[in-house]
Design brief:
five-stranded mixed beta sheet; globular; alpha/beta
């Protein structure tokens, strides 16, 4: 199974798909959680919950597709860091995408991914960093 993660906004979205796109999966395949400020604390447990609903364990995953952006700086960093950590811990390939997670090109790219890599965010603009008030 392949895990897709998208956290470009305050909504954390995940999708679980078979590596072979012709296979069917039970519904729901998509889950979204409005985590906003709790994303760093709750994203991994939401992913595990979604996998459990699909009767999939972390060890069943053969790859991860993560949305790189553009989007919220903090949300992207949290989602991509989580995806990178999962891929590293499970020793599975990971790719980053700027298109929809379920685009067939992502699955083709993931199948060709032989070397481990680290995905970096694509923010889309410079960060807006404010000066401290004091």
């Amino acid at each position: 199974m392949i895990l897709g993660i998208k956290t470009a906004s305050g909504l954390a979205e995940t999708v679980v798909r078979p590596a072979d796109l012709s296979q069917k999966v039970s519904e729901p395949t998509w889950e979204g959680w409005p985590l906003d400020r709790a994303m760093s604390e709750e994203l991994l447990s939401c992913i595990e919950q979604h996998l459990e609903w699909q009767h999939v364990t972390l060890q069943d995953l053969v790859g991860i597709i993560v949305f790189r952006g553009p989007g919220s700086f903090t949300s992207l960093r949290i989602g991509i860091t989580t995806a990178n950590a999962l891929a590293y811990a499970l020793q599975i390939p990971i790719i980053g995408t700027e298109v929809e997670l379920e685009d067939p090109a992502n699955f083709t790219a993931l199948a060709k991914q032989a070397e481990p890599q680290i995905i970096t965010p694509l923010y889309g603009s410079e960060p807006n960093i404010t000066k401290p008030k004091k």
